[in-house]
Amino acid sequence: MLAWQVFEHGEPADVLKLNEVEMPEPGPGQVVVRVKAAALNFPDVLLCRGQYQVRPPLPFTPGVELCGEVVGTGQRVIGNPVLPQGALAEYALANEADIFPAPSALDDAAAASMHIAYQTGWFGLHRRAHLQAGETLLVHAAAGGVGSAAVQLGKAAGARVIAVVGGADKAEVARQLGADVVVDRRTENFISVVKEVTEGRGADVIYDPVGGEAYAGSAKCVAFEGRILVVGFAGGTVPAPPLNHALVKNYSIVGLHWGLYKQHDLQLIADCHAKLTELAALGVVDPLIGGRLSLDDAPAGLRQLGAGESVGRIVVEL
Question: Where is the Enoyl reductase (ER) domain positioned along the sequence (predicted)?
Answer without folding.
Answer: 11-316
